Amino acid sequence: MLEVKDLHARIGDKEILRGINLTIKDGETHAIMGPNGSGKSTLSAVLVGNPLYEVTGGEAVFNGKDLLDMAPEDRAHEGLFLSFQYPVEIPGVSMTNFMRAAINEKRKYEGKEPLSAGDFIKLSREKRKIVELDSKLANRSVNEGFSGGEKKRNEIFQMAMLEPKLSILDETDSGLDVDAMRIVADGVNKLRTPETSCIVITHYDRLLDMIKPDVVHVLYNGRIVKTAGPELAREIQERGYDWIKAEVED
Ligand SMILES: Nc1ncnc2c1ncn2[C@@H]1O[C@H](COP(=O)(O)OP(=O)(O)OP(=O)(O)O)[C@@H](O)[C@H]1O
Ligand SMILES: [Mg+2]
């Protein structure tokens, strides 16, 4: 699915990613944890092609294609999806129109006909159920005035609609109440298939109890410094990061 080798990236003259190595196989869910400012959101931004960041070395291959060479929209069309830590509001653009345009862009890229209005409504209804998203939100502008929890749920709805091959969820749990976290986690679990993969960025093992990752990584200072099974999340919750930092600095 994804193979990242020695990836370096900077913003201005500040190097943030300092040699990331990461291999994700089809069907796997990986969690990325790590202290604030370690580069987790930067890694996801670089993978989806945010132009703010300059890649200064390394490679990223996504299903056999050179990801770093692709335009951001083509990365999305190829099946890469990022759910943002801070979802943006798009005033004046209704959720329905936004989603319909996104889906039809992707279909065009795949050489398919656009979805009819009827089929689009049917698909939306089906996918909305997965995250128990209120149908009223669909008529409003994208994320405008949505509560934090509604925004996050809406992002999982968008993910369900687009059926990405690799989804990156950046702190989808922050600001969610327990019930909403359960709904979001269930949504993510329902969308899992043997052909799709997921990267979950989180600070808490609570979400990882619900979305069971195959692998947990710790990102620190722009590098993945530890990789283990799901038990690592629990250990971090109990012990913090100091012991890992100490191991790195040894
Ligand atoms: N647009 C930017 N301009 C300047 N510095 C930036 C920018 N984006 C990220 N950085 C810096 O890069 C470092 C990594 O930030 P990043 O957002 O990737 O961390 P993070 O691991 O996602 O942290 P958090 O857990 O707080 O979300 C930080 O020191 C941050 O200040
Ligand atoms: Mg972040």
Can you offer a commentary on this structure?
- Helices cover 38% and strands 28% of the residues.
- It has 250 residues and is α/β, with parallel strands linked by helices.
- A hairpin with a 2-residue loop joins strand 1 and strand 2 (14-24).
- Helix 4 (117-131) packs across helix 5 (148-162) and helix 5 runs parallel beside helix 6 (178-190).
- The two termini are 33 Å apart.
- The protein binds adenosine-5'-triphosphate and magnesium ion (MG).
Low-confidence stretches: none
What is the count of helical runs? Answer: 9
Bound molecules: adenosine-5'-triphosphate, magnesium ion
Summarize the helix and strand pattern as letters. EEEHEEHEEHHEHEHEHEEHH
The order of strands across the largest sheet is 6-9-10-3-11-12
Query: What is the 3D form?
Result: globular
Topology of helices and strands:
Layout: E1 2-11, E2 14-24, E3 29-33, H1 40-48, E4 54-62, E5 65-66, H2 72-77, E6 80-83, E7 90-94, H3 95-109, H4 117-131, E8 141-142, H5 148-162, E9 166-170, H6 178-190, E10 197-201, H7 205-210, E11 215-220, E12 223-228, H8 231-239, H9 242-249
Parallel strand pairs: 3-10, 3-11, 6-9, 9-10
Antiparallel strand pairs: 1-2, 1-4, 4-5, 7-8, 11-12
Question: Would you summarize the structure shown here?
Answer:
This protein has helices at residues 40-48, 72-77, 95-109, 117-131, 148-162, 178-190, 205-210, 231-239, 242-249, and strands at residues 2-11, 14-24, 29-33, 54-62, 65-66, 80-83, 90-94, 141-142, 166-170, 197-201, 215-220, 223-228. By secondary structure, the protein is an alpha/beta fold.
